[in-house]
Amino acid sequence: MTTEKRRAPAGAAVLRGEITTAIRGAVMQELAAVGYGRLSIEAVARRAGVSKTAIYRRWRSKLELVLEIVASVAGRSLPLPDTGDLRGDLEMLFLIMSRALRHPLAAQIIPDLLAEAARNPRIAQTLEEALRANQRDVGGQLIGRAIERGQLSPDTDLDLAVDLIVGPLYWRLTVSRAPLSAADLPRLAAAVATALEVACQPAVRTEPDVHLSPITAVIDPIGS
After folding, report:
1. Is 85 a residue whose pLDDT tops 90?
2. Which residues of 115-147 are buried (b: 16+ CB within 10 A; e: fewer)?
3. Which residue intervals define the domain HTH tetR-type in the entry (predicted)?
4. What is 73-200's CATH topology?
5. For the chain, which residues make up each domain, given as ranges?
6. Torsion-angle region of residue 153: left (phi > 0), alpha (psi -120 to 50) or beta?
7. CATH 3.30.390.50 fits 16-60, yes or no
8. Considering 17, 152, 157, 216, which has the largest number of Cβ atoms within 10 A of its Cβ?
9. Section 85-105 average pLDDT
10. What's the pLDDT tens digit per position in 9-46?
């Protein structure tokens, strides 16, 4: 009985992993250097040391190329050690996030893609879905631990909690681009922890006071 050796597929059937990795890295470098608007398949190919054909075998267009790679990076899970305390977990998360957001590539790419998202619905949708999924994953871990410890209510609104966790740091580093030192992180963690504790408490409804005060009656000509 004889066995026939099968030949490995060649040509378009082979998508070598090292080439794909080189292309991904080149896309991120080009996005940081020139932005999405000026990025071209030719420039990515040159930077990656591959042919344009190698790129088009994997992605049909510049948009699909960028969306797939950016979504994979934005949706990447962050390691989040359990410190045993809500404030400690927040401080650790802020340290990890601040390092990621201040990375030279991220500092160039994120503002450009946000501006592009305002003009391109597909980029906007991809970024929103990837970032929200990632944030809910991280927030779910952090909030879940706090609930198990009894630090937060089981009724905590996860979406609201995620906004309170991510918003301040993201605004500081990405929007206002204000400096943030390591000494600021414990204070930020304490402030966010307090905000979470308040936010998860049941809302207290009060009846609006419909009686005008004397000062209001004088100032408001309609009420006179």
Report:
1. yes
2. ebbeebeebeebbeebeeebbeebbebbbebbb
3. 17-77
4. Tetracycline Repressor; domain 2 (1.10.357)
5. 16-60, 73-200
6. beta
7. no
8. 152
9. 90
10. 444 445 688 999 999 999 999 999 999 999 999 999 99
